[in-house]
Amino acid sequence: MLKALLMAQTSNLGDDIQAWPVWKFWGTVDAVLDRDTFDWWYPQTFRLDPGQRVAVVVNGWYTYNPTRWLPPSTLVPFFISVHISPEIADKFFRPEVVEYLSRFEIGARDLKTVELLKHAGLKAYFSGCLTLTVSNWLTRDCKPDKFRPLIIDLHENAFKYVPREIIRSASTLSQEISPIATTLTRVRTLLARTPIFGILKMLLSKNRADKMLLALHRPFVPSSPLLRLTLAEMRLQAMASASVILTSRLHVALPAASLGVPVVLVHPRLHEDPRFSGLSDLVISYDLNEFKDVGLALAYDQLSNPNAQLLEQMKRSLLSRLDVFRVQISYPNGG
């Protein structure tokens, strides 16, 4: 059976880091699908022959396209590490989507998504995130004789609680691929909630208006899936060489923890943001108020992540489920 990789054309390198372990798992793929539209992204000329189907691991954040999201019948999907934003749940769980998803057991990335899926009457379990498996293909490469802190998109209000010597000695990176694209993504989200978008849908077909809004930022982000995956791998290698990482990003914290790198995760809404539910306990995590009390006193060169055994169990479970899917599509008739 043919295999496709699901990727998102966003300005967030975290989306590519979520696609990276699936890419490594497959080894080679025949095509790349857009996560939000299920259009063929690469090659754009890719087409299936009549009766042909393609296997795809469906993971990641859903979705910028809630009113039109529905996988085509030509896909053989495996749902794992799925996050559904509560903000779009009412638009996402349309009757046709619920009917489609009822055919599968869905692995949810976080506990809140398990709750949303079960509330919709669907079979769901907590799988954790596929980024917890990156250490299956990449190993930590930190030199013990040199302390190398790394800061990746730490919330601006957290810096005042980090010791100056840590900030001075740290390398600083960002998951933001293009500031212009990030701004346009925010503009798109705001536009979709205004009467302007309603007028646009009256002037154009609803499908064309939706696609126009989804594509607003794309001229400013890399269009090559291979380039994006290469950038993701380079970022993971940078994480693997760090002594400790300070971040507010989930998809920095989880892959770094998989690699055995101590992580200090600081987020102002750590306990309210559904994306962190069931996952933040895998690293050293604080909301801003908590970090204010401890940040300056932490021994950053002596930290270790909590719950390493739980992380390893989640990693093994994720890899095992992927292997079962591979066998199922290799022998669809149980041969």
Strand content: 15-25%
Shape: globular
Q: Low-confidence parts lasting 5 or more residues at pLDDT below 50? A: none
Distance between the ends: 14 Å
**Oligomeric state:** single chain
In N-to-C order, the SSE pattern is EHEEEEHHEHEEHEHHHHEHEEHH
Q: Overall mean pLDDT score? A: 90
Radius of gyration: 20 Å
Q: How are the strands of the largest sheet arranged? A: 3-2-1-4-5
Helix/strand-derived category reads: alpha/beta
| Count of extended strands | 12
Biggest sheet record: 5 strands, mixed
Helix content: 25-40%
Tell me the count of domains. Answer: 3
Tell me the number of helical segments per DSSP (H or I, 4 or more residues long). 12
Structural topology:
Layout: E1 2-7, H1 13-26, E2 31-34, E3 40-42, E4 54-62, E5 75-84, H2 89-92, H3 95-101, E6 105-108, H4 111-119, E7 123-126, E8 149-152, H5 164-169, E9 171-173, H6 179-191, H7 195-203, H8 206-214, H9 225-240, E10 244-247, H10 250-258, E11 263-266, E12 284-286, H11 288-294, H12 308-330
Parallel strand pairs: 1-2, 1-4, 4-5, 6-7, 8-9, 8-10, 10-11, 11-12
Antiparallel strand pairs: 2-3
Helix pairs in contact: 1-9, 1-10, 7-8
